Amino acid sequence: MGTKIRIGALALASTIFIAAESFTIKPERLQENPAPVITDQKESVQTPSAKIHSGGQGVVYPQYFKLENELNRYYEIERNGGWQKIAAIWKKHLWKGQSDPIVRQLKARLHASGDFKSDDQSELFTEDLSAAVKRVQRQFGFKQDGIVNAGLVKELNVPVEKRIDQLLVNLERMKRMPAPTPGTRLVANIPEFQLHVFEGTRKVFDMAIVVGTEGNKTVVFNDEMKHIVFSPYWNVPPSIVREEILPAMRKNRGYLRRNGYEQTGTENGLPVIRQKPGPKNSLGLVKFVFPNSHNIYFHDTPAKSLFQFRKRAFSHGCIRLSEPAKLAKYLLRNSSNWTPEKIDRAMKTGKEQWVSLPETVPVAITYFTAWVDDDGLLNFREDIYGHDRAMAKKIARS
Fold first, then answer.
1. Which own/partner contact pairs does 321-326 have at CB distance under 8 Å and 24+ positions apart?
2. pTM higher than 0.70 for the full model?
3. What are the Cα distances from residue 250, in Å, to 233, 247, 265, 282?
4. What is the pLDDT of residues 3-36, one digit of tens each?
């Protein structure tokens, strides 16, 4: 069975993220007692499908129990033999009305996971299959157009054992989460590229976000939002000045002026650069501040085209919002001094204005790669930062 890690008490904070690509995580890893044991020896392990996971004693995060039900369903799928891989289709696409031998494989795969209820095993891409494909496209965060491409096949070909690992790890993360607070709260889930706005446990709305690149990872933490800044300056971090602004200045003497930048001084041998408020500003027309040592905040962006992509890891670490005006108006909805019209004007004045929120708003930046959505559908996303592999290696060395 190869290298195994048996972990008893995974006493991990919510800021530590484990998933499993190279390592198989069995239910015994989540028990309370044994110390970590690492072995390269092959050994006989009880089939996980023979177990029913029930490790939620004391858990206060509601999502945990929904995900636990899905885990037990996946154990049953594993006990029934899992699913077979679909042949790679590369540049090929499949859609309703086509006939192809791969369609038969697709039907078998979706039938095994319970997404295709029909017993039809023909090579015809039927209406029922199209509905099932749209369901799994939503499950993996694809556009729901009913067209099967290589990316969807790649997700469908992940073995059930790996999905069980992913569910176990996300259950462990959820076990460490606090209970939802009453009132307004914001949750930005990095692998999902979505911001969720809640009132208590009730979701009010979602919006697409852009997160940090793999080289500039968005940090996971909890904080409280205190301010909204309309028409903000952007104080360019020294690292960006060094790596991006200075080379551009050397190539073009008019670079700062043309792009709305100004130098306000010198520090540690580097020019201190800020970008003036306005439509070219990299923070857009508004930012949302929850003071933290990571210098991370939410903000608008002039680069609206990036929101069309399924994977949106493009920033230097801060989180860009697809609908910042909507969030500003919602957070100030009970402030008589801030009507929607006044907010629109403040975003476009070109003069920076700080506004304190009537009450601080809890913010959670999370890293969940599996969860159950409002309609009861199990979702999976990719581990975009490789936290899973890194943590698995760390455990193996301990």
1. 321/195, 321/207, 321/209, 321/288, 322/207, 322/208, 322/209, 323/207, 324/284, 324/285, 324/286, 324/288, 324/298, 324/299, 324/300, 325/285, 325/286, 325/300, 326/205, 326/207
2. yes
3. 23, 5, 18, 21
4. 333 233 333 333 333 333 333 444 433 332 222 2
